[in-house]
Structure to design on (869 residues):
């Protein structure tokens, strides 16, 4: 990609820990007032892990409660608060910022050969807003929680719920601005800060996917902000907007909410696809198959994704004809995702495939995402959706996409860039073991839920008919395996950040610009601005390289 | 009801239709899983690092192939859409000659009233092989009336009438679930449908204390609540006669036309100022808050029933 061909770098000679790096300063102040995109990425990483932990504890408590058909461990109220905590924190305080704000912040500027993002101070502001929003959300939990579900459906949320809706809505509202700022920053950075020679069709696909994601963030999130604002108006001052007793329309809320939230589900998958588009070429040592198609598919998804929100409302009393239009568009939006999967598969052809930890995650991503995507067709098919809407079929479907897809992609990316982020290697054996454990645990947790959903088990039920128990027991068993799979990386990452072996600038012999600087990178990324002369993913499968970290 | 199953019972005509599409979708999914996972598996083995496979002249893209695997899924998607849409259209359209049942949802129970007047809570007794049409509304938040064995579901929205129909094909007992989260006891807003042979159903209707039909209750309310004081030929107020109104087009004061369906009748009673009939003054008081959802449904049933009799066009200006 660059004049200096990355694959030629000999990791054995350069395998030392860069002494002067963005990590050199150690004061608290140097972290809290940093404008370095790499440090901000790490601040985000720690923050979202806290929320992931809380939300996972909530999930674990739900899964334990669901072991028995009559529940019994907790009251209905507690259960309702748990799934609300789980849903809100996972969506807004973990998954949406996960890949964009952590990995995107860290590598996007380096991938395009820039010294930082376009607006470094805004970038820090965005993190503070996120923390501030998170504080509101946490405060509403401490004061007793919210029981509306993450969807805040009216008029329940505005008139009937007795929980702390306003502080939670305020938290999400504020965190939304952090998302908007990050998106705007990425868009400007991609337009304005590319290295000389780095034309649009030479960009790494991760950059394309972040660009598409940022467009959604900037265009959709304001609608969420307005919707939450209107909820507050109605709840605090009784202004009739959604509650029919006040002359409002509850269905209007659903239109507004899903106008944001459907595009938002693409915020929760496109970045994962971008990561996989980096991993597959690197570990099959081949350029990606059909580069322009994969890049444009991201844009097609981002645009079409704005036109399908009504598929969440097929039984809401929306007009039958509107339902049909939303259904046909939903089938169409599935096509570009399919195109991506086919291109990844074709990339493996005649490759030289290395089964490293990131590659295992990438392959796991494809497997789980295909199942999540195909079950999406069931939901787009009108008559079948009437039956499975609001059942565990939906729960299974979106966990396959959000956890099986996005979280797997996040883990893959984290392992891939970990040597760059910390300058050190994680233990490869443990990495592979964790990847395998999460894959198995995930399927055991969520596959039975498809069957359960088709049987008719509604979501948000903690007591249920006894014939459904077997599926819940399987799911809870799977969840405990999945939990182990997530705790393992936590332990070895922490260990490796101090004790891991030095990684050198390019342990994967990858061609991206981010690998052309030392690990961890210097404060301003590059000693001299790189110049790009060719296409990305300039790999050759015919040249054998050893990428096994254990042999390093 | 409580044995181990992989599929829910098929107990209505639409259950079969939905299941056909469901099984087709499973087959199509298996097809795509095969065309994606088999090559991945094959490539992963054949082209694993260090294998002796031939790696010369790799292909890095081909517009022909791309167009192919874009078009094929698109066409398949359109076909699936068509299939689902046709069935959906049938599921969403209320058929004629159905047995009418009124359902009111509230936190956290289902209140059911049959046309004959019989009422029940969290239970729905119906005869087999008859088309049943539910008119649904909620008196508080949104609920959803879901019968998995019938593969039907419809949100129950406050301030609005929605409808749901099914034709049970097998006697038995089936779950009713509220599937839209509606607050604390949402998981306990459940009940059962009892599908019975027609004779058993007729006998069941006779049990319990004798009730008057919905239309009869509506008629009583029409006089007790003073509707008849205005809406009658010899009233001293200038108000339209309601005979023959149902399903007729009504000219409004603002020049538009509406069809007098259930929702229009409901709005006329609760928010009379919203749509004023052409030629009349806005003198009808709102009955919002003075009638329960059940009473409104009864009044509407009455207005609909007098709609069937032919009436001279008295009272119209
Ligand atoms: C004070 C007299 C008065 C009373 C009492 C009254 N209405 Fe009316 N109603 C009117 C007038 C005048 C109109 C026409 C103007 C309008 O559309 O509001 C009307 C319109 C209607 C309509 C729409 C008719 C059409 O042709 O579009 C319906 C239905 C109706 N009323 C039902 C009722 C019912 C049911 C009650 C009893 C709960 C009731 N009304 C009580 C005066 C009255
Ligand atoms: C890691 C293991 C996980 C388990 C065992 C788990 C389990 C569950 C359960 C039991 C429910 C509630 C079902 C209901 O009663 O409606 C649920 C809902 C949900 N989960 Fe998870 N989950 C996990 C991870 C995640 C992750 C990582 C995300 C997102 C990043 C996520 C997002 C959601 C959302 C959005 C809901 C819907 C909440 C709602 O209905 O309001 N989950 N999950
Ligand atoms: Cu959607
Ligand atoms: Cu409910």
């Amino acid at each position: 990609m660059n004049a200096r061909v990355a694959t030629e770098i000999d990791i054995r000679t350069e395998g030392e820990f860069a002494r002067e790096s963005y990590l050199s300063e150690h004061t608290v102040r140097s972290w809290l007032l940093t404008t370095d995109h790499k440090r901000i990425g790490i601040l985000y990483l720690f923050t979202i892990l806290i929320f992931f932990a809380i939300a996972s504890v909530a999930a674990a408590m739900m899964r334990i409660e669901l072991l028995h058909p009559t529940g019994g461990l907790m009251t209905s109220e507690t259960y309702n608060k748990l799934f609300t905590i789980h849903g809100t924190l996972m969506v807004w305080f973990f998954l949406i910022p996960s890949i964009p704000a952590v990995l995107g912040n860290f590598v996007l500027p380096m991938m395009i050969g820039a010294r930082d993002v376009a607006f470094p101070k805004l970038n820090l502001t965005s993190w503070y807003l996120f923390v501030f929003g998170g504080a509101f959300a946490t405060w509403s939990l401490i004061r007793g929680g919210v029981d509306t579900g993450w969807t805040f459906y009216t008029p329940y949320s505005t008139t009937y719920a007795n929980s702390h809706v306003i502080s939670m809505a305020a938290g999400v509202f504020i965190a939304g601005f952090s998302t908007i700022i990050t998106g705007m920053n990425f868009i400007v950075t991609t337009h304005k800060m590319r290295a000389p020679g780095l034309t649009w069709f030479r960009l790494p696909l991760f950059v394309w996917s972040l660009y598409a994601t940022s467009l959604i963030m900037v265009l959709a999130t304001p609608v969420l902000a307005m919707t939450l604002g209107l909820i507050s108006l109605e709840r605090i001052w009784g202004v009739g907007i959604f509650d029919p007793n006040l002359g409002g329309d509850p269905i209007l809320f659903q239109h507004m909410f899903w106008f944001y939230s459907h595009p938002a589900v693409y915020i929760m998958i496109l970045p994962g696809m971008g990561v996989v588009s980096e991993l597959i070429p690197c570990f099959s040592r081949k350029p990606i198959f059909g580069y322009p198609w994969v890049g444009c598919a991201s844009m097609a998804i981002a645009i079409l994704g704005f036109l399908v929100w009504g598929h969440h409302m097929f039984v809401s009393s929306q007009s039958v004809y509107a339902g049909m239009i939303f259904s046909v568009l939903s089938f169409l939006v599935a096509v570009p995702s399919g195109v991506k999967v086919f291109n990844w598969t074709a990339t493996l052809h005649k490759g030289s495939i290395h089964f490293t930890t990131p590659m295992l995650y990438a392959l796991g991503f494809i497997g789980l995402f295909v199942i999540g995507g195909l079950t999406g067709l069931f939901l787009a098919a009108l008559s079948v959706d009437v039956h499975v809407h609001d059942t565990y079929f939906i729960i299974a479907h979106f966990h396959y996409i959000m956890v099986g897809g996005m979280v797997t992609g996040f883990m893959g990316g984290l392992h891939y860039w970990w040597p760059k982020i910390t300058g050190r290697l994680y233990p490869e054996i443990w990495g592979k073991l964790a990847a395998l454990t999460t894959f198995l645990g995930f399927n055991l947790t969520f596959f039975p839920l498809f069957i359960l959903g088709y049987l008719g088990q509604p979501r948000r039920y903690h007591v249920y008919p006894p014939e459904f128990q077997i599926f819940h027991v399987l799911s809870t068993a799977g969840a405990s395996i999945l939990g182990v799979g997530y705790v393992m990386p936590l332990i070895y990452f922490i260990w490796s950040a101090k004790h891991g072996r030095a990684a050198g600038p390019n342990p994967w012999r990858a061609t991206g610009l981010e690998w052309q600087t030392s690990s961890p990178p210097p404060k301003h990324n590059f000693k001299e601005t790189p110049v790009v002369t060719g296409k990305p993913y300039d790999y050759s499968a015919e040249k054998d390289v050893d990428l096994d970290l254990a042999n390093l | 009801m409580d044995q181990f199953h992989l599929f829910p019972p098929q107990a209505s005509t639409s259950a079969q239709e939905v299941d056909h599409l469901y099984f087709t979708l499973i087959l199509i999914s298996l097809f795509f899983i095969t065309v994606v996972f088999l090559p991945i598996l094959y490539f992963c083995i054949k082209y694993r690092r260090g294998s002796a496979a031939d790696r010369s002249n790799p292909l890095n893209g081909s517009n022909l192939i791309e167009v192919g695997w874009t078009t094929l899924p698109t066409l398949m998607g359109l076909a699936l859409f068509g299939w689902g849409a046709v069935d959906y259209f049938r599921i969403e359209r209320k058929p004629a000659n159905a047995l009418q049942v009124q359902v009111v949802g509230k936190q956290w129970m289902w209140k059911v009233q049959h046309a004959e007047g019989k009422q029940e809570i969290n239970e729905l007794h119906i005869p087999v092989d008859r088309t049943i049409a539910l008119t649904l509304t909620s008196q508080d938040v949104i609920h959803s009336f879901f019968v998995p064995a019938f593969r039907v579901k419809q949100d129950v929205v406050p301030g609005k009438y929605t409808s749901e129909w099914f034709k049970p094909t097998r006697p038995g007992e089936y779950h009713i679930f509220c599937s839209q989260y509606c607050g604390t006891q949402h998981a306990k807003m459940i009940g059962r449908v009892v599908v019975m042979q027609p004779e058993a159903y007729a006998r069941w209707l006779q049990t319990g204390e004798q009730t008057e039909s919905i239309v009869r209750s509506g008629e009583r309310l029409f006089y007790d609540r003073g509707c008849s004081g205005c809406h009658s030929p010899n009233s001293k107020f200038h108000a339209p006669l309601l005979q023959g109104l149902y399903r007729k087009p009504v000219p409004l004061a603002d020049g538009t036309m509406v069809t007098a369906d259930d929702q229009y009748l409901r709005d006329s009673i609760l928010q009379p100022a919203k749509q004023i009939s052409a030629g009349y003054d806005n003198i009808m008081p709102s009955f919002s808050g003075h009638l329960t959802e059940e009473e409104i449904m009864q009044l509407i049933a009455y207005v609909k029933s007098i709609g069937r009799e032919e009436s001279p066009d008295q009272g119209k200006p």
The mean pLDDT of chain B is 90.
